[in-house]
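seq as requested:
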Amino acid sequence: MAPRVAVHPRERRLTTYDQARQFGKTYVGALNTGEEAFAALFADGAAVTVGGAAASPELVRQATPPGRSALRGSRMRQDGEFAVIVRVRGAASVEDREHVMRLDASGRIVSLSA
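struct tokens:
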């Protein structure tokens, strides 16, 4: 089971940049490990979109190829959201993609936009 990050219990969001970065490491590690490890990061009923369309965690993995993805960094956003920047290496290019998410009090993803 993937480790969880601490969240502020009352605000239900990450409290520091360091926590967002640590979760980013866990997120990209699970993305590259397998479907089960990645799916374990999500709360039941999580709202997931890829390119603006409703999706599943598996579709996120398909859009961000496992084994070719690396953590580029994390960025705090407003309203308790943060972005994990995933670097995707293709055959002829490298692209940085933002995965914007929100966690619940237990440290699981409740919303993700990739």
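The helical segments are 17-33, 35-39, 57-63.
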